[in-house]
Design goal:
The complex is a heterotetramer. By secondary structure, chain A is mainly α. Chain A contains 15 helices and 2 strands. The longest helix of chain A has 38 residues, at 230-267. The two termini of chain B are 30 Å apart. In chain B, the strands form 2 sheets. In chain B, strands 6-7-8-3-9-10-12-11 form an 8-stranded mixed β-sheet, with helices on both faces. The chains are: A mainly alpha, B alpha/beta, C alpha+beta, D mainly alpha. Chains in contact: A-B, A-C, A-D, B-D, C-D.
Chain lengths: 372, 383, 636, 313
């Protein structure tokens, strides 16, 4: 089978998964919660019952024959449309990006859920990407060292690190970092790192007034660079250290383990013995013969890693008051802002599925032996 | 004529004394080598035969210092060309492998890195320690140049190059670029000399694009590249079909005489031994039970095991059907006491289980370790 | 969690009303943008003279047509206060005029569309009599008039600025409506009227419902120059809830002339986590930056010295470079409604068990909590145990709270006897919300057993469960409800009454919606706090005790009597007859107390935690928001 | 003859394998003290969980004492925080929590609760995984496809999001908490079991059983599953730690059935609220979680090595 066929098939499959995911999430939220909850995000508080009813019809939860909103709220007189109709309306709204008004506290009721979500999303993206980078930078060498020194001190050490990271409650690790670096360790009486938010507006080591930047991308680090505001950039860097570290340390276990076991397997291959028998330096053996074969399979867990990071960022964002979608998700859960959660789940789904797709294709392309 | 050669060539390139070796496994300690004694003369082709699992390959690995981490040498020395290999520091051992000891392995499929081209896997040898290869490469090139200069209408640039190379020879150093170029042409010439078609193409190919026989040739070429003092050939023909086997073996022989290296040919196939070897050592359960010159051994094998081994070989003239030895190779976790062969030995008697026989020279250059031929009187001193 | 838009962050510092609560207490109002005023005896006409020489941040002059624009805009546009404020702004003003204008006042459906704008214009609420003089024509006089005008939602906005931006906003997104006046013309009055009609034209409940169009000020978008206040809105990040105010260089200086923005930039940052806020404060204090943070009463000892507060009643900071001001009492009361006529959300019908229809059970619940202890241990003394619905000092002064007696006080023994009597002879007759008697058999308050056995316990008790709900994370309410549950369950187990009280946290939003739709027996409301739209005793009662208020009137409640007091109070208020107003308010108070309609808990205290380098701020108890003290400072 | 046929059914390799597994396990423990530590911790945890109700009266967690809130009087360690509350006579080794309960007692009461949830989750996930995984693998074709795609859907959402949604929808209780985690967990086991069975069903003895005309349920449940279930059990040990982490994470962010419930994440939740006045409230519960999950992970890691053929040499 040719590459493009393979890609095509994977894309179709991706679309299917997303569709199924939408059905799942729709059923969970709309099927199991009363239709009034589903309606809430679309209703502007000022509306009269008549207005509400017309909206309920427009959103597709109330039948056109429904006499009054109170009947609708009491789920009587055949006011509620069948679930599949609701789904079609819902899907239409999802596709045109109409997610109604946000219910999040602290935000004007006239803000749309969509704009709120994607206003915050860049911060989460920034956090996750930085964390992912850190994870790779730490995990891969760790895995290699522990494989090349199997059952020796470095191996034990790196296993403890990765297993430890894997076993530490993320919220606790974050809290301890705060305790240590913000409360107890002080530089010249100053807090070492900012406790909150993506910007260093309150961090002691930060430039007192970093000024403002133009939101090209919404991602502070990038925007700061694009608008050449170096103080702002450093503030953002300083601000992201602790959260990203927390996320990375607690996520690297998976990757380290994969790299380690791959590496150990590869090092047991005959061609490694051959390479040694040729009198090559151990470094040459490891890096030019073993590494590539060991890293390649490790790429395949990237998808898993992304899933883990997105999940983890919810907790980390809460601990560090990171203004991303993760911390907002919890608030959304508190105020029953179903649409926000739905949006989050779907976006996360898209990201993960696409990542997996890219990884698979990349893998297929990279390894000369793979014949899909 | 090779006999004459071995007789007069007195000095050993390799001599193994009382080599004892254990494997530590979760199941317990496996005593893989139980004090083996072996020597190879310069330019000699020694066969090492025995059933699989009797410690042939381990011996080779021990010589090349490629033992797995859970192996431990508990006694004896391996002296290669005057220096004790076992005492070498890792770095020295590496250099020894790079220059003096080359090894060719059983399975050409798995012993080449699938994701690197043949070329790069050959080139990395010279790149590992350029100094060691300068003279080889340069001399090779000089010879080429000489030929061309003598030949009709030589390339005018040649004399200049010759000068440059001579300087390089003195300073023992080459530019990176030049090193690579020379390596390439040299490697290709080697590939040609192991009779690979279109060596330039092969140089660029990935292993999985080559057949088994071709890969084995590539491995031999790699070995030749280093002009080693000792070549360890571990079951190199097992994975190949018969016709290819023959070619490879002849290649080995030619190579041996060409660069005058000594070869330890490990195999379980007596036919091969008979075909190419000068001397042969029979191994059983971590012991060398009999060493003799090939024809001698085939004419009158002494050790009961050797007898059995020979008997099990199918003959061309089907005067009698091959009969196999009773029982199977012992589990070396708990090796039999005394002579390790006694449980399977048809001629075993009361001494065998209790004491370990020593090597006795029963005929010139014919050693055997079996109580049937004496060694009963006096303590077990492994002379 | 607080709403930086709904709260008075921006109103306080960016927009100014004609009057202001006077700084020390909110009891009186003083002219602010207004120079002077006279109110006719019948209370139907308020004549105003405005200060001269004041300009909006965008340079527009402040004059009577600005007031005309602002007040009419408020009337016509719900949530049109400088910062969106739900229906509050309009309803506060609408009640001064023809009640048919207001959904809240008349139980009628709101007229949408341009007709509504026409109705408002026809009211001629604001009459311009000169560039700096004007009259307000009031259909329904109200003694709280000046408090309305001092309310942050009635801050005056710059007409030109707002009209220009709104028109731009509406015409760019005019896909599902047509603006009658795409370009405004005529004099300012004329333009204002057209603007109002245009706005109503944008209201639609079409296929993808959007209500009415947004207005430019709704999110106090970047660079709002529409106020006369000491600050202007520099930027607003709706996603991360960061509002940046910057000083208004040509601020007029206030009545005293010496009010000036000394801080160049104020950044309002939304940091929901208590700990994080405190860490930030510490860092800021150490780094010499200026910062005000909100510290919950439960966490006061994170920043304040305990011994100083317990022993000497001083809030002394434990962090160098941090100062704490306060505590100040504010016009707010926390309480726990004990509801009757509770319905089952799934069936939509009444629960047959309506414990709080029984006065004895209401009293028993109220008697089983030691508020003083909780105030000291959990609320850390940052509040006063409430002895009536009315917070102290709320105007009109004289609505005296100390005189009204509470029917309850912490007393487990009384709880025990009350429970026993309620169990042995449960009430049999119920009244529905609409006053009619409930059909027999529909309700039964029976629990436990009617007669105890020799051992003094029930043999086969009828089990009943009363769930109490509070807002997740509200430590104080949690403590209160837990103690109630503890006491009641304790008695119940001694006599094997089968009555069990369990306490569950609900997300604030969920709890409130369930509570307002009458689906929970008793709930703690302080997650949004009970506060007045403006400091006026009468307004405090309306939703809680007045007939037709949002809380269901409990069984045994003398609705008729309360109704009479209520009408008398309204009457007195409209005639400005303070004495009888105060009398009827106090009688309502007394009635409410003796009936134990609700369990009043605390009057919350406010205090300000800020770095010491911040000079001068005005605390104003008149503002309607509870909690978030830092939101209430006018920094200058 | 029938005797010969029986042989493959009883899969003779197994007993010997277990035997050598045991030796390998001991070998590992000898050479790798970390695994030993894991074993010790896990066993200790389980024991503590079993004993907890004997050590501490289970009713204590309902009892609050507002006058003893947030106090620390461990003589061994004076906490360097201002405004330290005093706790009267009795000594509280780990201080008291926001409800005036001894933190140590609460932690002891919490361990069985967390462990129970973990076990419930893992057990149900294993059951689901084994049944559907083996069905998918053994039946192949459409069934395989369907089951795989379903797992794909669940794996395309971060677990915590799915859990949040579920808890919001189903309301907050221990049951829904457990359920939510199970729902995010089972797909892994299906995947794992599937790969195992696919390997197992290729084996010779399955063919021979088929030839003998044994029905698929018999082959699957009597032979294939018992032979391929090992790694699942390993995974489940490893996962107990992770599940405890998950549970505590969810309760920490406030998705808790009852704030008084002594559950490690729940206790930490109080802790983050009183970070300044009572740091011990977050430190110790979190530390407990760390130790327990680390214990199980170390153990699981070791066991995985035992079952990893590539590590055999």
């Amino acid at each position: 089978m040719r590459l493009y066929e393979y890609v095509l098939r994977r894309i179709l499959f991706m679309v299917f998964v997303l569709f199924a995911l939408s059905v799942l999430i729709f059923y969970l939220t709309r099927g199991l919660l009363p239709p009034t909850t589903a309606l809430a995000p679309y209703i502007n508080p000022r509306l009269t019952d008549a207005g509400k009813l017309s909206i309920a019809r427009a959103v597709g939860v109330a039948t056109s024959s429904c006499p009054s909103f109170s009947d609708f709220a009491a789920l009587q007189n055949g006011c509620i449309t069948p679930l599949w109709t609701q789904y079609l309306y819902w899907l239409k709204n999802v596709l045109v990006g109409n997610w109604g008004y946000t219910l999040l506290p602290g935000i004007s009721g006239t803000e749309s859920t969509w704009s709120v979500f994607f206003g915050r999303f860049p911060y989460t993206a920034e956090l996750d990407i930085v964390a992912a980078a850190l994870t790779f930078l730490i995990a891969v060498p760790l895995g290699i060292i522990s494989a090349t020194h199997n059952n020796k001190a470095p191996d034990h050490l790196s296993r403890i690190v990765s297993l430890g990271g894997y076993s530490i409650p993320q919220f606790w690790f974050g809290a301890m970092l705060l305790l240590v670096f913000v409360l107890y360790v002080r530089i010249g009486g100053l807090g070492l790192l900012p406790a909150s938010g993506a910007l260093g507006t309150t961090c002691a080591l930060c430039f007192s007034n970093p000024g403002t930047i133009t939101a090209y991308t919404g991602v502070p680090l990038l925007d700061a660079l694009l608008s050449r505001n170096i103080p702002y950039f450093w503030d953002s860097v300083v601000a992201i250290i602790l959260p990203a570290m927390t996320l990375a340390i607690t996520s690297l276990g998976l990757l380290t383990r994969i790299v380690r076991s791959n590496m150990m397997e590869v090092l047991r291959q005959d061609y490694i013995t051959m390479a040694r028998s040729k009198g090559l330096k151990e470094r040459t053996v490891v890096y030019s013969h073993a590494l590539r074969n060991a890293i390649l399979p490790a790429i395949t867990v990237t998808g898993l890693l992304v899933t883990y990071l997105i999940g983890g960022s919810v907790i980390v964002e809460i601990v560090f008051s990171w203004p991303g979608v993760g911390s907002a998700a919890l608030v959304a859960a508190d105020v029953l802002d179903i649409n926000f959660l739905e949006l989050f789940v779907l976006v996360a789904g898209v990201i993960i599925v696409v990542t997996n797709l890219t990884v698979d294709i990349l893998y297929a392309v990279l390894d000369p032996r793979i014949r899909y | 004529m090779s006999q004459a050669h071995t007789q007069e060539g007195g000095d050993d390139i390799l001599s193994i004394q009382e080599l004892k070796l254990k494997f530590h496994t979760y199941a317990g300690e496996v005593s893989a080598l139980d004090g083996i004694k072996l020597s190879i003369k310069k330019g000699e082709l020694l066969g090492l035969v025995g059933e699989s699992g009797c410690g042939k390959s381990v011996t080779a690995l021990a010589i090349a210092g490629l033992l797995p981490p859970n192996a431990e040498v508990t006694g004896g020395d391996v002296v290669l060309d005057g220096k004790n290999v076992l005492a070498l520091k890792p770095e020295e051992m590496r250099l020894a492998r790079l220059k003096d000891i080359a090894m060719i392995f059983q399975d050409p499929m798995t012993y080449l890195n699938p994701v690197l081209t043949i070329g790069s896997q050959m080139a990395e040898i010279t790149r590992a320690e350029p100094k060691l290869f300068v003279s080889t490469l340069v001399n090779y090139r000089l010879r080429q140049i000489d030929k061309q200069v003598e030949g009709t209408n030589p390339n005018p640039g040649l004399p200049a190059e010759r000068e440059r190379l001579r300087h390089a020879l003195e300073s023992q150093s080459l530019g990176r670029k030049e090193l690579n170029e020379l390596t390439r042409s040299y490697a290709i010439s080697l590939l040609r000399s192991v009779r690979l078609p279109e060596p330039e193409k092969v140089f660029e190919m990935y292993p999985f694009e080559l057949s088994g026989g071709m890969r084995q040739r590539v491995m031999i070429a790699m070995a030749m590249m280093r002009r080693p003092k000792l070549l360890l050939a571990d079951e190199i023909t097992t994975a190949l079909d018969v016709t290819v086997q023959a070619q490879i073996l002849h290649l080995l022989k030619d190579l041996r005489s060409e660069i005058n290296t000594s070869v330890l040919l490990i195999t379980h196939d007596l036919a091969i031994v008979a075909e190419v070897c000068d001397r042969v050592a029979v191994m059983y359960a971590g012991n060398i039970v009999e060493i003799a010159e090939v024809h001698e051994l085939f004419r009158n094998p002494l050790h009961p095991y050797s007898k059995g081994l020979l008997a099990s070989v199918p003959r061309a003239d089907l005067t009698r059907t091959p009969d196999s030895i009773e029982g199977s190779v012992p589990d070396l976790l708990s090796p039999p006491s005394g002579c390790r062969f006694h449980p399977r030995c048809p001629k075993a008697f009361e001494v065998c289980p209790s004491r370990k026989p020593s090597m006795i020279e029963v005929a010139p250059d014919h050693y055997v370790s079996c109580f049937l031929y004496g060694g009963l009187n006096g303590k077990n001193n492994n002379t | 969690m607080y709403d930086i838009y709904g709260s008075s962050v921006v109103p306080m510092n960016v927009y100014e009303p004609l009057f202001s609560y006077n700084g020390t207490n909110g009891v009186n109002t003083v002219p602010w943008l207004a120079q002077s005023y006279t109110l006719s005896f019948d209370g139907h006409t308020l004549s105003l003279t405005l200060r001269s020489g004041i300009t909006f941040a965008d340079g527009e002059p402040f004059n009577s047509s600005a007031v005309y624009f602002t007040y009419n805009r408020i009337l016509v546009m719900d949530g049109s206060a400088p910062i969106g404020h739900g229906t509050q702004a309009s309803w506060i003003f609408q009640q001064l005029l023809n009640t048919s204008l207001s959904t809240t006042l008349c139980a009628c459906t709101q007229v949408y569309g341009t007709q509504y704008a026409q109705d408002v214009i026809a009211e001629h609420f604001v009459q311009i009599t000169g560039p700096l003089t004007l009259e307000l024509h009031i259909t329904n006089p109200n003694s709280a008039l000046l408090y309305f005008l001092a309310h942050p939602v009635s801050g005056i906005v710059a007409p030109g600025f707002v009209m220009q931006h709104d028109l731009a906003l509406w015409s760019e997104s005019s896909n599902d409506y047509q603006l009658p006046y795409p370009k405004l013309s005529g004099n300012e009055t004329q333009m204002t009227n057209e603007y109002m009609i245009d706005y109503q034209a944008t209201c639609n409940t079409g296929a993808t419902p959007k209500g009415c169009a947004q207005t430019y000020l709704d999110n106090s978008v970047d660079g709002s120059q529409a106020g006369t206040g000491p600050y202007t809105v520099q930027s607003v990040n709706t996603a991360t809830n960061i509002i940046t105010l910057s000083a208004n260089p040509n601020y007029w200086g206030g009545p005293s002339g010496n009010v000036h923005a000394q801080i160049k930039t104020i950044i309002y940052k939304y940091v929901p986590d208590q700990t994080t806020r405190e860490i930030d404060l510490q860092n800021a204090a150490a780094a010499g930056q200026a910062m005000v943070i909100d510290v919950a009463p439960t966490n006061i000892y994170d920043v304040a010295s305990r011994s100083d507060w317990i022993n000497h009643n001083n809030l002394v900071s434990t962090t160098p470079g941090v100062t704490i001001y306060g505590p100040y009492t504010q016009y707010a009361t926390w309480f726990i409604p004990l509801d009757t006529n509770v319905t089952n959300p799934f069936t939509g019908t009444y629960y047959s068990f309506q414990p709080f229809a029984d006065y004895r059970l209401r009293l028993a619940f109220a008697d089983s909590v030691n508020l003083t202890l909780i105030n000291e241990q959990v609320n850390n003394k940052l509040g006063t145990v409430a002895n009536s619905i009315l917070p102290p000092g709320i105007p009109p002064s004289g609505t005296n709270v100390s005189s009204s007696k509470l029917a309850y006080s912490y007393n487990p023994d009384v709880v025990q006897s009350l429970l026993l009597s309620a169990m042995e002879n449960p009430i049999t007759h119920f009244t529905l919300e609409n006053g009619t008697a409930a059909p027999s058999g529909e309700f039964s308050n029976a629990f436990g057993c009617t007669a105890l056995n020799a051992a003094g316990t029930c043999n086969h008790p009828i089990p009943q469960t009363i769930p109490l709900v509070y807002a997740t994370g509200d430590t104080i309410d949690e403590a209160i409800l837990n103690q109630i549950a503890g006491t009641i369950n304790n008695v119940s187990t001694t006599y094997n009454m089968g009555l069990s009280v369990d306490v569950t946290p609900l997300p604030c939003g969920q709890m409130t919606s369930e509570a307002f739709s009458g689906e929970v027996y008793a709930w703690a409301e302080s997650c949004f706090g009970w506060y007045d739209d403006y400091p006026w005793a009468l307004d405090f009662f309306e939703p809680i005790v007045a007939p037709g208020g949002i809380y269901a009137a409990p069984e045994g409640w003398n609705t008729a009597q309360m109704g009479e007091y209520w009408n008398a109070a309204l009457q007195a208020s409209s005639q400005g007859d303070m004495t009888s107003l105060i009398n009827s308010i106090n009688s309502m108070n007394a009635l409410a107390n003796e009936q134990v309609s609700n369990l009043w808990t605390f009057y919350p205290d406010i205090y300000m935690v800020m770095t010491s380098n911040i000079r001068g701020f005005a605390f104003n108890p008149g503002f309607y928001t509870t909690g978030e003290p830092s939101q209430m400072a006018l920094l200058y | 003859m029938s005797h010969e046929m029986k042989q493959p059914e009883k899969n003779p390799a197994k007993s010997r394998r277990q035997h050598s597994d045991l030796r390998f396990a001991l070998h590992l423990l000898r050479q790798n003290p970390i695994v030993m530590a894991g074993l010790v911790i896990s066993v200790a945890t389980v024991v503590l969980a079993l004993l907890s109700n004997l050590l501490v009266n289970g009713a204590y967690w309902h009892q609050q004492n507002l006058t003893l809130r947030l106090c620390w009087n461990n003589p061994a360690f004076g906490w360097p925080v201002t405004n330290l509350f005093n706790c009267g006579g009795q000594v509280y080794p780990l201080g008291t929590d926001a409800y005036g309960r001894s933190l140590l007692q609460m932690i002891i009461l919490a361990i069985p609760i967390d462990l129970q949830i973990a076990l419930e989750v893992v057990a149900s996930a294993v059951v689901i995984g084994v049944v559907f995984g083996s069905l998918a693998a053994y039946m192949g074709g459409l069934i395989d496809e369907v089951i795989l795609r379903i797992t794909d859907i669940f794996l395309a959402v971060p677990w915590i999001l799915l859990a949040i949604v579920l808890i919001v929808v189903l309301g907050r209780s221990l049951t829904t908490l457990t359920l939510a985690i199970i729902i995010t967990w089972w797909p892994w086991y299906v995947r794992l079991m599937r790969s195992q069975v696919i390997g197992e069903k290729e084996k010779l003895y399955v063919e021979r059983l088929k030839m003998m005309g044994a029905g698929w349920p018999r082959i699957l449940f009597r032979h294939v599953i018992p032979n391929s279930i090992y790694p699942i059990l390993v995974q489940s040990t490893l996962d107990i730690g992770s599940v405890i982490l998950t549970v505590s994470a969810l309760t920490f962010i406030g998705l808790t059935p009852n704030p008084l419930l002594p559950e490690l994440g729940n206790l930490s939740n109080q802790g983050i609220e009183y970070f300044f006045t009572a740091p011990w409230l977050i430190i110790f519960p979190g530390l407990t979680i760390l130790i327990i999950s680390l214990g199980f992970n170390l153990l699981g890691d070791g066991i995985r090595d035992i079952f990893d053929p590539r590590l055999r040499r």
